[in-house]
Each structure stands twice: as C-alpha cells, then as structure tokens.
Amino acid sequence: MFTLTNVVPWGRSFDEYRRMFALSDDDLAGRIVGCGDGPAAFNADATRRGHRVVSCDPIYQFDTAQIDERIAATYGQILEQTRQNAGAFVWGDGIGTIEELGAVRMAAMRTFLADYQAGARDGRYVHAELPSLPFAEHAFDLALCSHFLFLYSAHLDEAFHRAALREMCRVAAEARVFPLVTLEGSRSPFVDACASDLIASGAELTIERVPYEFQRGGNEMLRVTRREAR
Ligand SMILES: C[S@@+](CC[C@H](N)C(=O)[O-])C[C@H]1O[C@@H](n2cnc3c(N)ncnc32)[C@H](O)[C@@H]1O
Question: What does the pLDDT look like over 8-51, one tens digit per residue?
Fold first, then answer.
C-alpha cells in the first residue's frame, strides 16, 4: 500500500523542469502530462503561464494539509542528508548553497500547495501511478518524468521501468525522462534494456545532454518518440 510515510516530498521549479527536459516554446504549447510530479511547481507555474499540464502522482490521494505536514516532517532531514553528501552535487547556477537549495525547493513546494486544491478540482492533479495511467491513448503530446524512473533503480525493477515507459508512450506522442542516473549517481542499469524494449515496440529514441545538472552526472535526458506520431 502507498502511504505518505514512504514518501519524501521534494519538488522542483518550473525553470528546473524547463532545463531538465530542454522544453521549447513549441513543447510548452502542447498538452503535457507530468508523471510523478509530486509537490513540484511545474504544473502550477505552467498553468499560470497559460500552458496545459496534467500531473499524476500517488501522493495526490492525500489532501493539502497531509502533504504539507509530510513536507514539514522531512524537509530538514533531506537538507541534512544533502549537506553530508554535498560532493555529489554541482553547486552554482541558482543553487549555490544548502540554504539556497532549501529556499528553492520550499518555494516550489509552497507554489504547489497553494495551487493543489484548485488544480485537483480542475483535473490538473490526478491520483494515478505508473505503470498504469487513466488516460486515453495519445491523450497528450508530451509525457515527462522527473526524478522517478531510473533514479530509483534500486527500488523499482527492470520490468517496472519497461512497463512505465511503454505506458508513457501510450498516452503521449513523445516521452522524456530525466535523469538517467540512480540515487548513487551512476547510469541506471535499466537504460539500455528499456531502450531496446522501446525500439522493439517501434519507437525511436535519443539520449541528449541538457542544460541542467544538480546531481553530479545527472545531465542527460531520454527522449522517446513513437514512429507513427511524427
Ligand atoms: C523525487 S519525487 C520527484 C517529484 C518531481 N517530479 C520533481 O522532480 O520535483 C518522486 C515522485 O514520484 C512519485 N511516485 C512514487 N511512485 C510512483 C508511481 N508508481 N508512479 C508515478 N509517480 C510515483 C512520488 O510520490 C514522488 O512525488
């Protein structure tokens, strides 16, 4: 069962999403689904800018107060762990210190929390989880997954990754995943197997360097395009 005590909420900003996924104005003009967006500010800020984003995540079964409480309970621990592991991150470019990291993450999560109730009512925050999403085939132009697939390779097996990526490609014409490294900072052992599986399913894919790196070595994105979608 999915419980909040299993989750360590940590949300990134719209600008980080833009750089992690090399999002162009054209990309942002399409219908986007964010898989595992959690308490990120991407949906809230994209909506404010007039874009169409739906986010799905198992934490959306909880209400604002419950998520807020979990953020308060874990925020200090995450910053302390990061402080102890500071060499694994690239400091600078907007996040120069632990204090700045805390401020950027908390601002993003506050933006999410302020938007969450209205967004859920409007169908922008959907309680759902990979590898099975409640969306029609081709419902979106672009499916994004930030800091979930590949990152948790020690917790989610190869079969899960393959099924999740195929599902993202079912609901969207193109899927992008960032980063390709695990929590330990090495390339996920599932990248190659997923790539072969997606190619076998008729998709085309590229691995691209993007203008974002915070976790050291986490600077590449997987882009998967369905051949018939082009
Ligand atoms: C590290 S957070 C990343 C949040 C956000 N994408 C970001 O980059 O700021 C990972 C998210 O994956 C979500 N998650 C866990 N299991 C999931 C599943 N089966 N499908 C989709 N999301 C899941 C968690 O609830 C959490 O919000």
Answer: 889 999 999 999 999 999 999 999 999 999 999 999 999 999 99
Looking from the CA of residue 58, the nearest atom of ligand 1 is 25
Q: Check pocket membership of 146 for ligand 1, CB cut-off 6 A.
A: yes
pTM of the predicted protein model: 0.97
Q: What is the pLDDT of residues 83-129, one digit of tens each?
A: 999 999 999 978 999 999 999 999 999 999 999 999 999 999 999 99
Which residues fall within 8 angstroms of residue 2, CB to CB, at 6 or more apart?
58, 61, 129
Strands 140-146 and 125-126: unpaired
Q: For residue 15, with 0-12 CB atoms within 10 Å meaning exposed, 13-18 middle and 19 or more buried, which class applies? A: middle
Q: Is 218 in the pocket of ligand 1 (CB under 6 A)?
A: no
- The rounded Å distance from CA 11 to ligand 1 centre is 9
Residue owning the nearest CA to atom 6 of ligand 1: 37
